[in-house]
## 1
Amino acid sequence: MTTNDLTGQGPSRRMVLTGMGAGLLASAAMPAVVWAQGAPIKLGFQLHRTGIGAAYGHWYERTAQAALKVVNDAGGIAGRPVEIIFEDDGTDPARGAEVVDKLVNQHGVDMVFGPLFSHVVMGSAPRAGELKVPYLVCSEGYHVASGALNRWTLQPGITDVRSQIASMAPWVAANLGKKVTMVYPDYAFGYDHRDFFTAAIAAQGGEVIAQIAIPPTETTFTRYLPQIPAETEVLYHVMVGPAVLTFVKELGEFYGTGPKPQLFGFIDSLEAVDFATPGLEFLEGTHFWEAHNRVKQADATEFETAYRAAVGVDDNGASVSDAADVATYSHMFSVWETLFVIKAGIEASGYAGPADRQKFVEALEAMTDMPLSAEHPQGAKRFNGKTHQVFGVQNISQVQGGKLMRVHQTTIEDGLYEDAVDYTTMSF
């Protein structure tokens, strides 16, 4: 099944966009929604409110609330109002499994979505499988498409690391250099980068000459930076956690005003960090991967404009009410898009309650094309029902005048890879 409009039986794409805009006007009163008979649909959100993922959790919650308002203002899902129950997992795998259990067994949610960090997903998904509850992750790890999890776990809102790397490695090799040193976090997400980029750059005639793994809880990085070989042409960095700003500042201090390799970073290294922060001036001219451009680009669509307004993000990627509150813009769109995938799946499957959870998963497995729309403001997507993974476009941005400006955009096809699993053949 091709889903040309992920709202299914609900309002059209244009209607959703209109409802979105109306909801933004404080002075505009929405007409009262007349709900169909039936209890609210209860969604559990596994939230990184504390721990190393707290910056992401802050914006994931904000995005979920904004999307929820749009959905309910437009009539809910299948005529039923929607509730989201948030539970903090502390960005901890063991606690994550407990949160999934609590959401299902104590709160009685219909399904669970939300987590980002790979190690939390890996620690939580088995419990979702035991409970036979749909578990939709807003994560870019290769954990789902690898086949390591279960049929109840899906990743419909953001492309995984393997695809991101496959898309971008040719550009990096052609434009920045072929002798690469990698700096990455010492856990599953970092290992995905290490393994897939090493292979991808080799396919372009390049070589990873050094791999430097850093614990995600590290607070200073000066002892790691001297490990970067002098012959490095490209320094590929992706860091996470509360000390990312320290990492980048110390990197700048390490190189000073002298020569340095081309820097190519995943925006994870500076998510939620203002590029105008003192000490980051050395990043001028360097490049970053972004799934979703933090700075509003000149060719932004009407869907992008409406999405920013709904979530409350200005053209520079910060909260409209606090310029110092910089969004985790390259990841949080996955929350928005996942909620609309949930809506589409519920409506396509005729979901009425927990007894229909299997039907819901099967409906998602039948989805393919997800066009650029109000529901998918980051860009068009293609869902692979066998691997439970979505594929989308990627952006390479350059720091120009202290702002990230897109210089290259990949295609969906650039990031496709062979299937490692077929979840549709697995039992529930």
## 2
Amino acid sequence: MTTLSPRRILLVDADAFFVAVARQEDPEGAGQATLLIVGGRPGSRGVVCSASYECRAYGVRSAMPIARALKLCPQATCVPVPRGACSARSKEIQQVLATFAPIVQASSIDEWYCDMGGTEALYGHESLEATAHRIRDAVFAATGLTVSIGAGTSRLVAKMAVELAKPKPGTGATGVRCVPPGSEADFLAPFRLADLPMVGPRFSATLERMGLDTIADAQQWNVSDLQSRLGERAGAWLHDRVRGIDDSVVTPREAQKQVSREETFGRDLHDDDLIERELLRLAVRVSTDLRRQGLRARTVTVKLKDADFKTRSAQRTLAHPIESEKSVITAARVLYRALRGKRRVGVRLLGIGLSHFDDDVGGERPAVQLGFFAAPPPPPTEGEPVENAKDRALTRALDRIRDRYGRTAIIPARLVDQAGDTGPRVEE
């Protein structure tokens, strides 16, 4: 009988990633600021993307409006997100991780799961903790950035461990926290149930009504009792998770779920023409992102955040997949007008999301010879764009021009008129 070795899973989390990259990119400005907020300029209506640990001590948190963050920490320096540099550093870190782990999965731009299974002999049977420290040193040598690493027998345990690994001021943490096999339940016991991934506010409130606050509380319940109160599926799920049982695997790449762009405006927009122009601008950008990933989408979503912070959205799944900015704006405009017609107030934020991708559209598509006298496509129904080979070929030709001469080399004529001021925009 063969005994399987315990899994060896790491979660590598870049420390204050956006803050660290901003400091690298501007050593004389952001690099000198101990109290640093990344996400927007003072006076903008953007939100905090990240904040230095020193700012977090004042109560500054991610997704908090910049204005509120500066009320909590008025001495802080605010800078925009260096998106290009962040993307480059993320790829560099993943390349380093790939030299240590046979399987690396990017969970976000600054988090990666690593399955270290089968590497015991490769690393001379060194401890997983020792390997994790070597990974930290290699990442720092390659990028100048620090990472924290949680390690355990499952993705769940690694995720919980990394929070205790982070070298926050006063914690004494070393950047690595390993949970030995067999100690998962004891390790998790002190955490609150709300700290568990996938335990949202509603589920947390339900557990509180049952008298359950900490993971240790839930560990006292058997599976049948939990199922009787929470349902069969939720009860079994919670019973396993509070004991560190999580069979989810690390895969090289998670399927892309959505491509989206949104912008927060410097002032509330009321003029429909101006808003639709911004919608067009977003359609150009999000469709470009879509094509760069070799995707076509069937579902278009438009998101509005009103002046009173109420968020609304509408979506439509199309009969055929689309990729061109012409098709995206056709569908998005109908969705926007439907939302706008229901509630005519100032618009604070506007967004377009594309999802429900075709699986068979990867890589370079074959070139299509277009006939000069090709028959035009049938007229689309409202909000139902019809894309043909000519549309796609034209769009990809525009992409090549923009790649060579910049994204503003060719833009829709409607975007040339800049008379309507939207205030400082924050692209999300």
## 3
Amino acid sequence: MERRLRFVKLENAVQSLRSNEKSSLTYEQLSRSIPLSVLHSQTSQSFREIPLIRTLRFKLMRSKKNRKLHCEIEQFSRVYNHFITVIERYYRLFKKHPSASRLKMLLPKLKRTRRLSWLKTMPSQALQDVVERIDRAYKRFFEERKKGRRCGKPHFKQPENYKSFTLKQAGWELVGEHSLRIGDFVFKFHKSREIPSDKVKTVTVKRDRLGDIYVFFVVKSTEFVPKRCATGQSVGIDFGFDQFLTLSDGTSVDAPMFFKQDLRHIKQLSRSMSRKVHDSKSWNATRLDLNRAYRAIQHKRDDWHWRLAHELCQKYDLICFETLNFKFFQRKHGKKVQDFGFVNFVKKLTYLAKRYDTQIVFVDCFFPSSQLCNACGYQNPELKDLKIREWVCPVCGEFHERDFNAAKNIHDEGGRALAGLTEFKNFEIIS
């Protein structure tokens, strides 16, 4: 925040000098208020323009009209299940899956039937989005199966488990400061920031397990962000189970383990819920308390991830990671990997890297980062056993701590990937 204020102050000072040639503000006066490193590194173009796709989330105010949205979500679940049935029948007859365009052609025919005549009252673009959602799920299923990975195909969903529907150009309208018209009803939401209505691409209505409804605005726009002063620092990062992150500069980051901290409370609520009559008033009340506890854990974990991602992007110009199959580690190590939230952290970090102009390199997962000696390059085959945390290189005699040595190797391999000197070609560079 302090850095941003300095950038704004500098920009205002430069603009005042341009607008008034007889201004009494001199270069010496300007340099007294702003550090020389910032002054010399920043020009009149101290802000850069970046394209961003942002998702703005707002919570709807509690109202009896929200029942209408719950009913619409359940109706969309019926449409979802109907097209799952159509796809399965089509596959049994023709041994192939229909395309999304062919499925969309069925929508006008379904509206003319007596059984599904209520589809006429549903937004047409939202119905098409349901078909597109199913098509993406099947494509993902076939891609994962080709790669030899375990993946379940799309299946039927109970109405209570279906969560959202999406509106595109039509079917919604912003009314007033904090009101949204969907169909014939106007819903109020808690507005925490401005919404550029001319740049909104989609509007998604989603409910959570507590029955609260949120509105998601996907906004595609350009933002002017201050240019970050280059630090000239780079780092390699290794994910671990003892520490959340191990950095090549010798530091490590421990995860707070939010789920483990609240595990006792969650067990008490689960035990209390199991002793009550299913779907009774007390059972539903305990279920809501349990979902609130899970949501609180998720919020605390997300907040910690964002803070750590901001700190890393501000400090380093280049960050190197190793691509890992976190689903495999989650099946093998269970709750601990899930409590870390590696995947969500990487997503947040890659998003902030574009804002901070930080480069991220993902090194191939088959690169033997833990087995290589960072000093001489000797590969120790005995280190495939994860229980070995410390070892001494038999060639050069260098002592290594497993995670720290892996982080340094990932850092060096990321540099070679940028230079095009690595034999492992499956790397990704995000800048």
## 4
Amino acid sequence: MKKILTVIFISLLFAGNSFAQTILQALNDAYKNNAELNAERENLKVSEQELKITRSEYLPSASITSSKSKEETNKLTNQSGGNASITDVDPLTTSIKLEQTLIDFGRGADYKKKQIGIDLAREKLLKKEQDILYKAIEAYSGLVAAKEKEEINRKNVELKISQLQTERIRLERGEIKSSDVAQSESSLAGAEAQYIQAQNEVVTSKLNYENVIGNVNENSLQKSIQSIVNIPTSLESAIDLSKQNNHDVKIAELELEQAEKDITIAKSDLAPTASLSLERSYTEDLSSTYDEREKDILKATVSWPFFSGGKKFAIIDKNQSIKVRQRLLVDNAVKNNLTNVTSAWANLQSSESFLNSVRAQVKAAEIANEGITAEYQSGAGSRSTLDVIQSNSLLLNAQISLANSERNYLLAQYNLLKSIGLLTSSYLNLK
């Protein structure tokens, strides 16, 4: 039996390694295909187009207009009382107009705001990258852990079945009581229930994986408990890196810059604007007197909106308040960054310590279970069926705890990178 299981295990291991999907491959899939991330990329394109629209306002505008009309005028009598006359006018007018804004104090500030908007969109894209990539890591490790726990519970059910069969044979021999068999039956029923629950967890984890990353062959996943990139080795270095890379802080700072530009734009609405235009028109068949006519118009326009019922001053005051609000949000983002990085670092340390403790627990539980089972089967000791059941339960719980702890340790590493601002495609070298 052991030989058969060994052969099966080696076969599965070989197949898994041949078609394995690593966490890096999963992250690449999420980076390329996630709908939320692609939507944020489109938002960056919108900001880039808005800058182009604003830049076009610096250039002169040109327009061509052409019109044609027909006019008939009937006079029954002329001034001398002569015969009636008919005037037929069929004009064709074509004009071209060039216009250039000379002075607009708000246009430059609006252009700079749009430039900031592109940087802001990039930072929001990077923040969304971090959110999606972390979700992908959660989904990947969640499915791996669920599959592992399913296998642990499956083996536990097989063990309980084997134990029950042995118990029934020993009952027939009179070596144990029927109550011992009943305890084994109860233990098997509990193990089967746990196995079903583990199977349901696999189904749920697979759905989450497909929602975040895409299609998956759940049997091809490779387990990993170490980050694929380097992580800071001290809290101080983590904090220093976060000051340079944290996207929440950068977003708050850029929104503050935009608020400052909004004040400049609002103040410019109180200043005059000036423009220059040149229009040339050509008209054919204007009347019976003139067959054609050309006309040039050069016009300079100055506009000064010096009064608007206090509206413009109210807008300035509003934008001043927005600026104060944004400055407060920057300060808050800086404080939150320090808190989040410190918390993520502490969680990483505690996760590693807990993982080491659980590993020791599993090792001890395996030794204890092996000894208790051997004593019970030999009949040399005082071990009972209940002792074996309890020993198996302790080992099972320790193995489940180990699977969860390994996943939590992996997530803690990536959560630290996320809090710093380094859980991005460039740092992970995604393509």
